Amino acid sequence: MNAAVARHALNRLFAWKIRGVRWIEIIGVLMVAAMIFSVYLAKAAAARESARIAELERQIGESGERVRLLRAQVARLEQPARLEALSREVGLGPVEMKRQASEDALQTLKPVAAPPAPAPVAAPAATAEVEAEAPAPDAEGGR
Q1: Residue 107 has what pLDDT?
Q2: CB 57, CB 64: distance < 8 Å
Q3: How far apart are CA 25 and CA 17, in angstroms?
Q4: Between β-strands 21-22 and 17-18, what pairing exists: parallel, antiparallel or unpaired?
Q5: What residues contact residue 24 under an 8 Å CB cut-off, 6+ apart?
Q6: Which of 37, 49, 70, 119 gives the lowest tally of CB atoms within 10 Å of its CB?
Q7: Are 55 and 47 in contact (CB under 8 A)?
Q8: What are the b/e assignments for 45-67, b being 16+ CB within 10 Å?
Q9: 3-class SS at 32?
Q10: The dihedral sign for the CA sequence 92, 98, 99, 100
């Protein structure tokens, strides 16, 4: 008897109609619409992530190219022939044999005086400011 009552209630529930359409069909259509919407959202999120990945890969490629160019520049700047030419331009050269000393003689050696540093060259704008700030000498030769 309970089974018959339950079956009758279930049949009545599934037979219930709203404006001529069974409510179970309405729920099914709503569920399909929700699934379609969720698939759309997932695809949109995947497209955004794909675009972000492509941008990051492009940046990685550009960084790799910059690293390659910088390594080539370092290799060019560290060429021994170039460094030798630059050192000869500023008056540097190999150490002469008479200037080499043994380890024991290092205590007795006198340090060589360093050459004087070149005077800094003032920029034209700085020179004009200094001249403008300096007071003009008097006619008597004093200040």
Answers
A1: 76
A2: no
A3: 9
A4: antiparallel
A5: 14
A6: 119
A7: no
A8: eeeeeeeeeeeeeeeeeeeeeee
A9: helix
A10: positive
Handedness of CA 29, 33, 39, 43 (dihedral sign): positive
Q: For residue 20, is it left (φ>0), alpha (ψ between -120 and 50) or beta?
A: left
The label of the residue with tokens 């399909």 reads 32
Rounded distance between C-alpha atoms, residue 100 and residue 17, angstroms: 109
Quickly count: other Cβ atoms within 10 Å of residue 106's Cβ. 8
What is this structure's pTM?
A: 0.43
Length of the chain: 143
d(CA 93, CA 76): 21
Question: Which residues, 6+ apart, have CB-to-CB distance to 14 below 8 Å?
Answer: 22, 24
DSSP 8-class letter at 143: -
Structure tokens, 118: 């070149």
* Closest by Cα among 132, 110, 130 to 120: 130
Q: Indicate the residue type of 40.
A: Y
At 141 the pLDDT is 47
Indicate the pLDDT class of residue 71, thresholds 50, 70 and 90: very high
**Residue ranges of the alpha helices (H) in the chain?**
2-15, 23-77, 80-89, 124-133
